[in-house]
Amino acid sequence: MRVLCVNAGSSSLKLTVLGDTDEVVFASDLDADRGVFSEDGLGRAVGSFGASYDAIGHRIVHGGAEFTGPVVLTDGVEASLRRLSALAPLHQAASLAAVDAVRRVAADVPAVACFDTAFHATLPPEASTYAVPAAWRARLGVRRFGFHGLSNAYVSRRAPEILQRPREALRLVSCHLGSGASVTAILGGRSVDTTMGFTPLEGLVMATRSGSVDPGLVLWLARQPGLGLDEVSTALESESGLVALAGTPDMAEVVQRCDRGDARADLALAVYTHRVCAAVAAMAAAMDGVDALVFTGGVGEHAPQVRARAVSGLGFLGFRLDEERNRSVEGDADVAAAESNPVLVVRAREDLEIAAEVRRVVS
User: Fold this and answer.
1) Catalytic: 116?
2) 122 found inside a domain
3) Set 22, 31, 54, 116: catalytic member
4) N or C: which end of the chain has fewer CB within 10 A?
């Protein structure tokens, strides 16, 4: 079965057709600005693939409590997903716009929703529960969901292959660092803790998102003259993170400016990696230790300076980088020093996870 994988992110929209043995048959990347892309461009790109695929898989960021595994996209499913849009404003609307645009040029091809929250359905109660009024949890479904599940599911399969160790015996900490960023504890192939929560705003500093802030600060800001909940929400989602600290959401530019002695960029990188380092330690505590550290996502794969700064504070967990390996790594590899626990760089392949889920559902 050939599968068209549609991956709508906050900064890009990736289209990939995977063949019967997961070889890439066609691929096209479209730019997205805060989740907004050209629907006409998407339609042209999908149309150019012709009849080269048998099914379609859409990455959907938020499945809520209702969707804990892939499902065929129906009108009822779409209606449920639209109600969750407010919980992932940079992603959900873009994903559903992609569903509509692809349907217009491939209406007769079965389509499946694959959820970033589903991998975290295994979070234990102590990791998924907020200490808020019981009525909020029962009536409104307030809980921690976690995201980047498709990427982490792939990491949970790929890392044991690289290490040549059984998946069931491994304690992995996965750092998915891209425009969005999160750290996840994976015990025996299952998510047991993660930094993102009810929405993708919680946790690490990201390209335009603040990550975790004091909820008291949010309430205080919303009461200030000229500000309200909408203005604060927009600022935390789209005007914070690296763009607030360094004036750019592009980590490559931040690193280049750090190398030139730019104090603003250096602070941004220091804050970013401080959060990553602290999160790795917290995830290790959730598993009573860690056997391997994994970096994936655009920043995790392509920013050796970020990996170096983050790992420099993790010596107490047995991690140390080989400077040359870290600087020159290509593809999936271990960049740890000889006496260190493994530090893997793994190419993000959400498309492979999407295709596997689509085949299970459609078959």
Assistant:
1) yes
2) no
3) 116
4) C
